[in-house]
């Protein structure tokens, strides 16, 4: 036989598969209607387990693992089709937020930032707001608490850096606090080595842990210099300015040199020139502004094989792009994790509606963090 003959056979089999797939999904829709009439849940774990065992048991041994993958995906597609159109309290909440959020993002607001004047969070805040009233807090916990207490309408938090990776402390606090993401932005980070104008040989450098990681190569080139972490790069500059020592320096922004009367000993000392940090703007209430095309969620999944696969298969079935997947250990559980996902999908799309109505059913816990746009 020629290659074209085999392809003709494949085409004939594919035609039959399409016909049978559509027939199976039509039956699944009838099952969904029956379940709804009788108050039965869509997910029937025992039935899926029995069916998977039956199907793989009928197959040749070399085909069983392939059939297990195929039917696992088929179950997800079938469940998605059965759940299509079902509304949930979460989607009602999202729809209400879309209808009641103002059409324009505010130009001015009271905003919580971590650190002191000159912090990169301040720069990110000024990129999002024209005339913000900035309130500074010593740590990230303070920003979350200010939002929850209603002391500030918005808060700015760094979430990840292109060089040093995720800001784990913020992810851990996201598990503990209630908030909504309303905007995000990316800020070009340019670290400078700052010292007093009459400084002597540098023996100690102060900065935030993330900045230290971003400048690891440069710091190594300084030789035997002590590295000291502090809560913020601007705090590091302030510490150097207030100290009587002349042998210390800070990794901070150029703006902090002017703010605290320091000298730029060396500029752009980060290891990567393309060094950006992504910041989130959070609020207490759910606000969804026009054009929102990114959504963030957190979830705890059943502690068993295939749990994460089911979520990813659902995204694949709906054609939703996964931008980021982060996992953080749960403090009160051994070797169990909270998963954080950034998704790329318009808040107005049918796929988004369907996902928000369905995904909670395959999670132990599900937390919608907000839908928003990113300011570049």
Low-confidence stretches: none
Helix fraction?
Answer: 40-55%
Separate helix tally: 13
Q: By helix and strand content, what is the structural category? A: alpha/beta
- Oligomer class: single chain
Q: Could you state the order of secondary-structure elements as H and E?
A: HHHHEHEHEEHEEEHHEHEHEEEHEEHE
Q: What is the makeup of the main sheet?
A: 10 strands, mixed
CA distance, first residue to last residue:
57 Å
Mean pLDDT: 92
DSSP E strands, number = 15
Q: What percent of residues are in strands?
A: 15-25%
C-alpha-based Rg, rounded? 26 Å
* General shape: elongated
Could you please describe the fold and organization of this structure?
By secondary structure, this protein is α/β, with parallel strands linked by helices. Helices cover 42% and strands 25% of the residues. The protein contains 13 helices and 15 strands. The protein has helices at 3-37, 45-58, 64-83, 89-100, 120-128, 140-148, 168-176, 209-214, 216-221, 233-242, 254-260, 307-318, 350-358; strands spanning 110-114, 133-137, 154-161, 165-166, 180-188, 192-195, 204-207, 226-229, 248-252, 263-266, 276-283, 294-300, 321-329, 337-344, 365-375. The strands form 2 sheets. Strands 1, 2, 3, 4, 5, 11, 12, 13, 14 and 15 form a 10-stranded mixed sheet that branches. Strands 8-7-9-6-10 form a 5-stranded mixed sheet. Helix 1 crosses helix 3. The chain is elongated. The N and C termini lie far apart (57 Å). The mean pLDDT is 92.
